Amino acid sequence: MPHISVISASVRTGRISHRVALYFRNYILENGLGTVEILDLNEYQFPVFHERLDHQENPLPQTLEFADKIRKSDGVIIVTPEYNGGYPASIKNVTDLLYKDWHRKPIAISTVSDGSFGGTQVITSLQFSLWKIRAWVVPAMFPVPKAQELLDEQGNAKDKAVLDKRAKGFVSELLWCIEARKRMES
């Protein structure tokens, strides 16, 4: 059974995108698709890193813990809000922190915004950064427009059948990539 980490990228007060991270955790567990944990960047409260982890002389314990969790994950779902057409510094900070840990790691992107496009402007810029560090960006996206209207604070969907139908294709693509990577490396 694969282990999936869901990165909740927003560190803002009153964040809405965290609801989507909670939804994915619930969805994966309810459907028996794997084990899952949320890596909440708001809880980590990382400083701005001045150097990649490999080059840090005295890395913080929580930095080592985060890196270890990414390393042990079979795949990652990044849930990021859209801020002014881009993604938050918090997710750029941790993607640049690691390098070899992202290599060929299947990563699926879910974007969130208050607007009707669901943060789709973020996708290409985040994809490009992930490609540059040699991550395997899953060819399925999960934009969530007006998440505050779709999910409660615990990540429960107001129209579960509709959201689950969308999530099925998205998560299935991630699982396919995870399985393909395992077969290629064995």
UniProtKB/TrEMBL annotation:
**Name under which the protein is recorded:** NAD(P)H-dependent FMN reductase
A Pfam family: FMN_red
Q: Show where the NADPH-dependent FMN reductase-like domain sits.
A: 3-148
Q: Its GO CC terms?
A: cytosol
Q: Name one GO molecular function term.
A: oxidoreductase activity
Q: Which organism was this protein described from?
A: Ohtaekwangia koreensis
Which Gene3D superfamilies has this protein been placed in?
A: 3.40.50.360
